[in-house]
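Here is a tokenized protein:
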Amino acid sequence: MAEARKPLVIVGASYAGVQLAASARELGFADRIVLVGDERHAPYQRPPLSKGLLSGRTTREQLSLRGADFFAENGIELLLGRRAEALDAAALTVRLDDGARLEAGWIALATGARCRPFTCPGAELAGVFDLRTLDDAERIAEAAHSCARACVIGGGFIGLEVASALRTRGAEVTVVEAQPRLLARAFPPAMSDYVARAHRAQGTQVLTGTGVRELLGDAQGRVAAVVLDDGRRIECEMVVLGIGVLPNDALAQQAGLALDNGILADRLGRSSAPGVLAIGDVAAMELPPAPGVPRRMRLESIQAANDGARAAASLVAGRPEPWRAVPWFWSDQYHLKFQMAGLPQPGDEVVLRGDMASDRFSVFYLRDGVLAAAQSVNRPAEHLHSRKLIAEGTRFGAAELADPSFELRRPAPA
């Protein structure tokens, strides 16, 4: 009788982990697959947590990431509510919190990220929320029922999506951002200004260039106000934190894997330890080569998690295909759909196509005349064309891109 081979053990049951399991099966991986998740919920979609679930447009039942029978039908053993506590990279074993020890042929770390700690005085008050998990979102949604005034600390995508959802529910909302402008890492100044105007037009107060000194509570220990660095005081019954995340790399650190703001991995997800893969938000994965783009970056997006997982699946299935896709992202705020493709870099030539006042436009980034990135608002067709043209390294003139009558396609050869 042939000896059974050791399984693929995946630690982390969100997008990257589930995609790796699914793609490995699709590519013919025939051995056992064990998927370990520390939450008690079946794998679920995360984007609606800060959008539809908070605004009431999406129900919990609509969040399932895969159908109820998917895991059984594909022979994927799902261990929920179990935490991986130790990794032996040399022996390829994982020890769980109940003492169980899993031997593996491959181990994939898809442990994601956690909310950055908020150390301001008053952070422990009731009514102060992080948002990362379904349980977090449901606590915020429950508190929002009786909340008339909310303060969102952090003007990145998560913070602004939460602000949009709470404002849509009728709360008075204030966004506090320490940087001089919103979304400063992702958007050029003109786009940041546009986003701030869009939120203010909906009645949200946007305060930039100021930090938070402390949170004040009432006699019951609930948050009652946010005090800014400049002394201003914002009365509120709820605070939601959107100040970024940190990679969940404790297992990798304990096992001695190479780290640099996440687990270092190549374009197939291979870490510094043979047989140990890293994918998703926890991985600082090598990017598809492109002029001006860093060699590695930890991308916090569903698409990057899925693309990296597909590449890792190709490796374990014996058909290696390194990650090649152009990174892309999206965000919904009020009636605005933001779609971003590629990674803008300092020094890119920025080209506006369309009228920002119409809430339908795109911003393109040219690098030495080549389309390198694009950000679209309510223009899904331009976003889709842009992803293809970025992948092809298409060359454009700035005047062409700025002209709305110019068809966005690969120019015909001369």
User: Anything to note?
Assistant: The first strand starts at residue 8 and ends at 11. The chain has ten helices and 26 strands. The chain has a mean pLDDT of 94. Residues 67 and 73 are 10 Å apart (CA to CA).
